[in-house]
Amino acid sequence: MGLATARQLLHHYPGITVSVLEKEPEPGQHQTGHNSGVLHCGLYYTPGSLKARLAVEGIRQMAEFCSLHNIPHEICGKLVVATNEVEATRMEKLYQRGKANGLEGLEKLDQDQMREIEPHVGGIAALKVPQEGIVDYPAVITALVREIESLGGQIITNAKVNELHEANRWTAVTSAGDYAADWIINCAGLHCDRVSQLAGQKRDLRIVPFRGEYYQLKPQSQHLVKHLIYPVPDPEFPFLGVHFTRLIGGGIEAGPNAVLAFAREGYRKTNVNLRDLFDAATYPGLWRFGLKYPRMCIHELRGSFSKNYFCKQLQKLVPEVQPDDLETGGSGVRAQAMSPAGELVQDFHFVQGKRALHVLNAPSPAATASLAIAEQIIDKANIA
How far is residue 239's CA from residue 93's CA, in Å, rounded to a whole number? Predict the structure, then answer.
């Protein structure tokens, strides 16, 4: 998000000085570098929502960017599979939602039709979504950095922001030195609420980190999945559920679940950051969330500690998958904004400050739509 915003600023305002302060030695080391590499086209999002509008425009812009920079990507399509009659009814609503969002080529398929596309898929019906795709996001990061620098911007790495002071100009006190600016745009992802607090904003929303854990299909089992296979979302649960994703570099991912991480950068169960854990555990919103969704919390935890249980969820989509077909894959941490009432913030959320804009929630499809979201950020910031 930060790189996309820097790139769009440099295109909109030639001659502007843009610096990206990056905490890590290289950009893209957290959410962007750990996601599943999917290009989302906007099927699931509420018609008229910011996510829906930006997803449709965002995938078009990202595909054009990838073509321009020769970045590996493919619009391969996906199946959304209904495993029973209740899900088939929900799938019909999903079809109508996709049409309302402007998706093209949506098709409702019966069992025979869906198995022509995915021979090993289970379920009773499916929705074909031809505009969904896959991409190499680390390559997108590399291209964005190269373009920003070619336009005169700079990426300052190892520059964790420790303090922000606002006077006639902003001063960012970082681990790489002090930097002054007329405007700041906070795209700090997993730490965006803390950065906003450094800038004087009240921290009403809290980032609660959820780890998503993946398995991979072993090479001899990868023939079971050809494209992307997703479930029909359950409206009683706030997360999508496990699915199958073909990776642009080869291989098939299966997952993710969603479990509370004990560190904002906690990619393994053993990663614990006491500050992050205390921050989450003392937040009333998290306890209210747990009381609202106890069954889901138990379900996700079981999947985290039991490969057999995780596999049972996958078998609803591809019945032939067995635990022996799975090997441990990667993981990511989702920077999920949560309200004090325990509600997950589902749409993009921006907070305006004095010569500052804070991106406090950028859920999926933020990577897909990053260039389009950057346009929205620039409009909201009104920097000119």
Answer: 18
